[in-house]
Structures are given as structure tokens and as C-alpha cells.
Amino acid sequence: MSENIIQLNNINKSYGEQQVLNNLSLNIKKNEFLTLLGPSGCGKTTTLKIIAGFENSDSGEVMFKNEDISALPPYKRQVNTVFQKYALFPHMNVFENIAFGLKLKKMPKDKIKQSIEQMLCLVALKGFEKRSIDSLSGGQQQRVAIARALVNKPEVLLLDEPLGALDLKLRKEMQLELKKIQKEIGITFVFVTHDQEEALTMSDTIIVMNKGVIQQMGAPEDIYNEPANAFVADFIGESNILDGIMINDFKVEFCNKEFECVDKNFEKMENIDVVIRPEDIKIVKAEDGMLKGKVESVMFKGVHYEMQVSSNDFTFILHNTKYVEVNNEIGLDIYPEDIHIMKKSIDNE
């Protein structure tokens, strides 16, 4: 198992009366791609700034390789940051932008040239050395910003929503490029985003945050398939979240009907949240379904149809590859392993 390179211990941060981080602790492993994911205002960018040294926490420790760096200024930390606004120098060409940090370190010219050539190959910009920044596309500017950060050989690269300014097609291309670069150079990436698909696509580990508190930490598959609570289930992908009652181990009631499930160790007759993903609901003949419903709307989404189906005072969202006419009556089947039971959500306010 990889060793921890960064540890945040009991970090608290407030701006005036607003608490942005609430006793936050996490470990970041060496060479992993870790993503901080959550809605605006959840504390993910503040966490990144505290790691970088651009913000100080009110209390708690920032540890780097088991040494407390909480009091170190940013330039003394073995981390570099790439922001959404790339902060490139418009009066400098590509070579000069990437070389900026190396010149400050007074590295010999031949070493600078060699390092920049390596970086330009890594970010697929070989031959762009003399190009002006204004002549580059958004994706190319982002690559220059990444090269400028990586040429200093940081042990950790922090990325604060670096793809936010790109169009959808380029954004998806750069997701793959960033992951490829991270694997090639083998350093730790800490990536901030509010885009769930981006997090699922790129990350080794995802930390889902809300109101300054970590809601869940795990691999993308675990976060998606086994959400810790209704907030995570609702934020990561689409979900049907219903009020339910845990009758007994392996038996739950929702929509006024009992279902078998795979969960246990809840109190008998405990009020719980039931989470069912739209793709996990099977459409069958109306007379054969566990539930019967009426199709209220159908929308084509490219690879599937998204349907709203009303059943027993709840409107389900379904994803299915087959088209069903609006107003049709259909049956719904839900397998036990596709019914996720979780404790009632507790607001962090």
C-alpha cells in the first residue's frame, strides 16, 4: 500500500461567522490521483489552498511526509498549483512562461532548455516554444500551465478546477490527457471539481464534501455503487431517493410494498433512506411488475431514454434503451442488490 504524502489533521477554517471546514481530516497517498468533489461552497478549494499554503487554517495540522508544514509559506512547500485561470504571462512566449520558475532558481540555460523540451513533449506541445500565449487555444494554454508547474518537479500537483473554462469536447479530451500525464510522471495529483463525471473518470480516490465535512471517501466504483448517505447518492449521478422503513434484516418497505434487500444491522422498523439508481429499475409487463407505474415523460439522452414513471405516490426516474410511449402502464422490477439502504441523512448545519 502506498505511503501517505500529505495528512490533514483536524483542520478548521472560518471566514467571519461562516465555518468553511469543520474538523476535516484526510490522508493523501503518494502517486495517487485524488479528487475533492462537492457543490460550490463545500470547502474543497479552501482545502486545496490550505495544502498549498495560500490560506492558513484556524486550527489543525498540515503534514507533508510526517513533517508539520502548517507555518511554511507556499514557495517552501513541495507542491505546485494550476488554477482555473491559468495565470500565464501574456507578454512571454510558451518557452518563457514554462522557464519562469527555473530562471528564478538560477538554473543553467542548457539545463532549462533540456527541461522545457521534455515538458513540451510530455504535454504534446513540441514545436510551440516561440508561440505567443494569445495565439493558443484554451486547451493549449492549460497544457502550458501544467508544464510550467511540472517543470519545477513538485512532489504534489494541486489543480483547482483547471478544466472549467474549456468546452465539453475539449474538457473530455483533457480529462484523459491529465490522467495520462499523472501516470507517466508518477506524482500525486490533488484535483478539485464539482463535476461528478469528471471525478469518476479521472480519480483513484474521490472525497465527497458538503458544508466543510467529508461525506465519503473511496474509489469511484465504491462511491457510485455504495453511497454512504442520500447526499452522496444524489450528488454522484442520478438517484431515486425514497422514504422507507427497515422491517427486518434483508426486508424493507417503500411505496407501500415490501421488498427483499441485502442490507442488515438496522433497528427493526427504523426509518431509512432507500436509494435506487435509474439504470437499475427493470421494465416489465404491467401485470408482472413488483410495482405498477404510468409513464409521465420520455426524453432521449443519446445512449438511453430517461423516463419519469409515477407509481404509488412517487415519481421514479428510469434509464432504459427501449422507448416507451407516454401514458403507457408498465411494470417495474427492482432486484435486492439494487436497493441501497442508508441511515436518514443528518444535515451538517
Task: Explain what this protein looks like in three dimensions.
This protein is α+β, with helices and mostly antiparallel strands and 349 residues long. The chain folds into 2 domains: 4-230, P-loop containing nucleotide triphosphate hydrolases (Rossmann fold); 238-343, OB fold (Dihydrolipoamide Acetyltransferase, E2P), CATH 2.40.50. It has helices spanning 44-52, 94-104, 109-122, 138-150, 168-185, 196-202, 220-225, 230-235, and strands spanning 4-15, 18-29, 33-37, 59-64, 67-68, 79-83, 156-160, 188-193, 205-210, 213-218, 240-248, 251-254, 257-260, 270-276, 282-284, 291-300, 305-311, 314-320, 329-333, 340-343. The strands form 4 sheets. It has a 6-stranded mixed beta sheet with strand order 6-7-8-3-9-10, with helices on both faces. Strands 13-12-11-14-20 form a 5-stranded antiparallel beta sheet. The chain is elongated, with a radius of gyration of 24 Å. 35% of the residues are buried. The model has no long low-confidence stretch (mean pLDDT 91). This is Spermidine/putrescine import ATP-binding protein PotA. It is an enzyme of class 7 (translocase). Part of the ABC transporter complex PotABCD involved in spermidine/putrescine import. Responsible for energy coupling to the transport system.
Largest sheet: 6 strands, mixed
Number of structural domains: 2
CATH class of the largest domain: Alpha Beta
Strand adjacency order, main sheet? 6-7-8-3-9-10
Q: What is the CATH architecture annotation of the largest domain?
A: 3-Layer(aba) Sandwich
- Give the DSSP E fraction (strand runs of 2 or more residues): 35-45%
What is the CATH third-level topology name of the largest domain? Rossmann fold
Shape: elongated
Number of helices: 8
InterPro entries: AAA+_ATPase (IPR003593), ABC_SmlMolc_Importer (IPR050093), ABC_transporter-like_ATP-bd (IPR003439), ABC_transporter-like_CS (IPR017871), Mo/tungstate-bd_C_term_dom (IPR008995), NA-bd_OB-fold (IPR012340), P-loop_NTPase (IPR027417), PotA-like (IPR005893)
Domain ABC transporter: 6-236
Family: Belongs to the ABC transporter superfamily. Spermidine/putrescine importer (TC 3.A.1.11.1) family.
Function: Part of the ABC transporter complex PotABCD involved in spermidine/putrescine import. Responsible for energy coupling to the transport system.
